[in-house]
């Protein structure tokens, strides 16, 4: 009540403002006038605008494993959609980023490296990934090299919900595949690796 009184004193010079009651006919006439004004504004606006023409976008084919031979995920290739640069995450080092739009389901790059016959000694778990069905493992590259994929350079995330790509075993090779429309993050499995 105190704030209302101070408002009336300050804004209305202390006069008590009362609301005037209107008859049903007056309310109906005001409502009709308001609707008429809104209709005229819409009509004037519509007349000044040209009709919109929506262009239908051509659907892009997803990037498959066979497209990897065309250099989409190969460092130094003219068709490469990935690049390695300093991460935007504080103290994150270098990471792998996409240069063009990537859709869920697109194959991004191969996990390049050596395929040893036995477990490497000493094992460097940071760059080693196992192949399913006891197919061995891959000791990945440690820095971007021409004609190699970026798979081993993708940063690992601590939470599974934050990853936006995953490893897929296909044709006795390991590939990285986007699981979200997308810096690429993945998990290398749960410890022990």
UniProtKB/TrEMBL annotation:
Stretches with biased composition (Basic residues): 29-58
UniProt cross-references to InterPro entries, sorted A to Z: SET_dom_sf
Residues of the signal peptide: none
Region feature (Disordered): 24-59
Origin superkingdom: Eukaryota
Protein name, as recorded: SET domain-containing protein
Species of the source: Aphanomyces astaci
């Amino acid at each position: 009540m105190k704030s209302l009184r101070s408002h009336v004193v300050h804004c209305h010079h202390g006069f008590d403002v009362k609301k005037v009651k209107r008859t049903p006919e007056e309310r109906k006439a005001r409502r009709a006038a308001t609707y008429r004004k809104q209709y005229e504004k819409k009509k004037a606006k519509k007349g000044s605008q040209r009709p919109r023409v929506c262009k239908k976008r051509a659907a892009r084919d997803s990037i498959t494993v066979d497209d990897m031979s065309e250099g989409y995920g190969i460092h130094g290739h003219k068709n490469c959609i990935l690049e390695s640069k300093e991460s935007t995450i504080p103290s994150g080092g270098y990471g792998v980023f996409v240069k063009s739009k990537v859709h869920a389901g697109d194959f991004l790059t191969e996990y390049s490296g050596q395929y040893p016959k036995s477990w490497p000694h000493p094992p460097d778990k940071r760059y080693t990934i196992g192949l399913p069905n006891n197919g061995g493992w891959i000791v990945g590259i440690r820095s971007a090299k021409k004609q190699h994929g970026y798979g081993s350079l993708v940063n690992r995330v601590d939470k599974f919900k934050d990853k936006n790509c995953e490893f897929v075993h296909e044709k006795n090779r390991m590939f990285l595949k986007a699981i979200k429309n997308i810096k690429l993050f993945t998990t290398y499995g749960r410890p022990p690796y």
